[in-house]
Specification:
The complex is a heterodimer of chains A (533) and B (457).
Chain A (H helix, E strand, L loop, with lengths): L28 H17 L2 E3 L2 E2 L2 E2 L5 E5 L2 E9 L4 H20 L2 H17 L1 H12 L3 H26 L10 E9 L2 E5 L7 H12 L3 E5 L5 H13 L7 E3 L4 H9 L5 E5 L2 H12 L10 E5 L4 E5 L5 H13 L9 E7 H16 L19 H17 L1 E5 L12 E4 L16 E7 L2 H10 L2 E2 L1 E5 L3 H10 L4 E4 L16 E2 L2 E2 L13 E9 L1 E2 L2 E2 L2
Parallel strand pairs in A: 1-5, 7-8, 7-10, 8-9, 10-11, 12-13, 12-18, 13-16, 15-16, 18-19
Antiparallel strand pairs in A: 2-3, 4-5, 6-22, 11-21, 14-15, 17-20, 23-24
Helix pairs in contact in A: 1-4, 2-8, 3-5, 3-7, 4-5, 5-6, 10-11
Chain B lengths: L2 H16 L7 H15 L1 H13 L6 H13 L6 H9 L3 H22 L5 H13 L2 E7 L7 H22 L6 H4 E2 L2 E2 L4 E4 L1 H4 L8 H22 L2 E4 L7 H12 L9 E7 L5 H14 L6 E6 L4 H11 L9 H18 L2 E2 L5 E2 L5 E6 L3 H13 L7 E6 L4 H9 L3 E8 L2 H16 L4 H6 L4 H5 L3
Parallel strand pairs in B: 1-4, 1-12, 4-5, 5-6, 6-7, 7-10, 10-11, 11-12
Antiparallel strand pairs in B: 2-3, 8-9
Helix pairs in contact in B: 1-16, 1-17, 2-3, 3-4, 3-18, 4-6, 6-18, 7-8, 8-11, 11-12, 15-16
The chains are: A alpha/beta (533), B alpha/beta (457).
Bound molecules: flavin-adenine dinucleotide.
Chain lengths: 533, 457
Amino acid sequence: MPNPANPANPVHDRAAPFANEPVLELRRAPVRDSLTAALAELDARLPLHAPIMIGGERGADSGFESTDPSAPERVVAYAGRATESDAGAAVAAASRGFREWSARGAAERAEVLVRAAATLRERRLELAALMVRECAKPWPEADADVCEAIDFLQYYARAAVALERGPELVQVPGERNTMRYVPRGVVAVISPWNFPLAIPTGMVAAGLATGNAVVLKPAEQSPACALALVEALHGAGLPPDALSLLPGFGEVGAALVSHPGVHTIAFTGSGAVGLEIVQAAAETPDGQGHVKRVVAEMGGKNCVIVDSDADIDEVVPALVGSAFGFAGQKCSAASRVIAHEAVHDALVERLAGAVDVLAVGPPERFGTDMGPVIECEAQERVLAYAREAGQAGRIAASAAAPSGGWYCPPTVACDLDPDARVLREEVFGPLLTVEAAANVDVACETVEALPFALTAGLFSRSPATVERVAARLPVGNLYVNRGITGAMVGRQPFGGNRRSGIGSKAGGPDYLLQFVEPRVVTENTMRHGLVVE
Amino acid sequence: MSHCEELLVRVGRGLHAALPRPSRHPIKALDAKGMELASSDAELRAALFRLVDVTPACRSHDDLARHLTEYLKEVDERPQALQAAMRVAHTAPGRAALGAAAATGVRHMAHRFIVGESPQAALGVLEGLWKEGSACSVDLLGEATFTSEEADRYAARCEEALEVLSAAARSWPQRPLLEADSAGPLPRVNLSVKVSALTPLMRPEAPHVGRDDAAQRLRPLLRRARDLGAHLHIDMESLDALETTEELVFDLLGEPEFGDGPSAGVVLQAYLRDSGRQLDRMLEWARASERRPPLTVRLVKGAYWDHEVVEARQHGWAPPVFEVKAESDRNFEELTRRLLDERLTKDSAGKPDPWHPLLRVAIASHNIRSLASAIAHNRASGGEDHDLELQVLRGLGDELGVAIAASGLRVRSYCPVGDLVAGMAYLVRRLLENTSNDSFLGEQQRGASIDELLAAP
Ligand SMILES: Cc1cc2nc3c(=O)[nH]c(=O)nc-3n(C[C@H](O)[C@H](O)[C@H](O)COP(=O)(O)OP(=O)(O)OC[C@H]3O[C@@H](n4cnc5c(N)ncnc54)[C@H](O)[C@@H]3O)c2cc1C
């Protein structure tokens, strides 16, 4: 039995082409046992401490705490609560770090990222366990989160090396044209708790790979996960000034966004905060020598269209996984099913039955299908939406949820009033609505009418329908005949359009362009009528 | 050539010679033509599968015709007949006719593999098989199980099948070869069940959850089978279900109330790299068990090869199955030998005791070489022919079944029962198998000589 923490993996070598980090084979008992053991080890060390880290200096580490959503009395980590002045200090450090870090070539920077990836890989069991505790991620998704973080480091490391070469330009005799991409400066990363390792890693890695310095403000719910990333990068040889960690709340994020020393803001989170950031970043006070750029990944209201020729045997598990995986707390999660009227009733019945048997419970238990939501306010919000769905329609299924943690029952609602709020707003929790449509084109109109355009799904076995719907829907990621979550780095570059996001797709070939500025140099190579190249 | 290999070739040639002449029935010939077309062109094959797959979900002949033409559009080189089909599909009456023809074709194909819509409807075929010298195992096809009601319904159908079959089988004529071996009587009624249909809670990362839930439905079935004197066989599915299935069967059969029955069986998949260790576990269990009826082990190669390989590739795992067909074939022969050698207990004098075997052995394959290796090894090691069962699938191994029976060996035909909607996944799998270039049947259809077919893998 190979060590499950270190499965044979050819990707350690930066020269090897990118390949996704394999998730653990949880169907094998020894692999499961190794995770359970890692959790016990972690539990023995709790609570952890996540300090403010500016320029490699560990600062305060006890301003607030993160707790276990399945047992809120358990403190997972104490964290320093960064202030506005910490934000200023971190940006100042980043400006210093930027000079040293950007002076290194892309290849040398890539080495650092790949080394950090190796550290995450070595610690993968422990990190998965940490996500189980700090964010109540069930094992399969916690493990996938670590893998995605590794993927981002590996992928952007390689992409930055390729980007450094610059594109080919048209050349004519007597002149030499070159174009290259240079880092923009300081990146502020503001990351969410729902992918507490993968998403900050993606944004931080993109900034660093291209030669920027980064200040990371992770979600207040998951400071310990963010610390693991910062430690891995510092340990891999990153200059300490090039990456600071500011655990804390909204006010630190706001301070970073409005700081004139910040060049790029990479944000993943709610639409409301995203739009505030866009607005604040547009302020360009005197003395700020640049216009800020915002990369924002925001919410969605993700629909799945089920045509009459769909294979319901495939639809049901795909919907259950997409709507209730990690309790629906993914920006890609399915929240609204629009089914052809010929299959609607049968689908509701089977879906409801499948949801009735879901096991809701502590995420560390293998066999738990759904854990709690992240915090008390989230629980209240989801329950309120579910109540509203019950008033505006019919609750078709609602599995039992235990008490003690921030649990919500996974819920399917149908026969809803078309004006119901739950049909338009992002719930970000385990609530799925199902409605009927006369045909696929009507369903497409419904999707098009939404302001969001992140993910969508289509189940159809007609090639013409697939082509038509794919051409028509505005979403960033359309999934056909499968679940709509679980985008893989390099395979499904991920990101939304319209009010779901600005910027290009994470884990895709053009993501890094958002962190650089193009510069073109044109040199005259004629001297006295001679070409002197 | 070793003695055993010589014997194997002789047995294989004998089986081959006993195959009935290919049928001249015009519809069968058309069927064969279709299969041949599908095996010769990958795009055409894909179009055929997609058509079969979508048929039960189409709401009208027009809808079916529309799907068919869309699939055919993706085929670069269309045979004349299909070209014509696409032309007629431009008008509504043309589509209706084309859709009707396609539906008939698919239904016909299904009938080849599925013996009836219900156990009642299947009785005629099953009795016919019995009279011709073949026992059967009935498999109830169904849609995937996602809900408790669906699992309950499947269990109820199984129970009903046991009853209907038991009532009918009583009046079947005696067939001594099919009804007993050295260890004792063999039930006439034999039902194959799938664990994934018995519970909506199959969770590869939590085998105990599915095991506990399925146990609540399998236990009453075991009781019913015991009381009716029927055999219950637990099929094996993809690797994701293996641990659940293994734990479930071993746990339940170990319960005291099942000490005297029913006769029950499990499946060993030779394409799994780990199958040797799985056999170790079965033997270990059988040695420790105090049950009276020996556990039947059906050796197969494994029906989920593509699924296992694709799933492993998508996750970056080492595939759990062999990746070279000959390795599966060799392992199949190796496991056959081990099963035949290690099934026997020793009496107090240390001599093999054929009356109290640990296991009963069933070899399921359409590969004459694989079957012949079992027959030959059994004979070479002093076993009785009637202590070895050979199994084939209805629709794929019919002619082989006739040849096995004609050779005086015991054969059982695995007979799916269910409607078209429920049977579609099964049908597609069988068609895949039948048209796969790598398969024995594919080679046989392409006219490989018996020497090539019998060559050591
Ligand atoms: C009565 C009966 C019951 C059965 N029950 C079950 C069951 O419970 N569970 C189950 O999984 N299957 C079952 N099967 C199906 C069986 O596993 C095989 O799929 C089928 O019989 C084909 O194998 P073969 O020996 O007849 O043909 P062959 O043509 O000799 O072998 C084909 C088989 O070889 C293997 N193979 C194909 N390509 C490769 C490759 N590149 N590398 C390695 N291996 C490869 C696959 O297993 C494939 O099915 C059953 C079959 C029969 C006849």
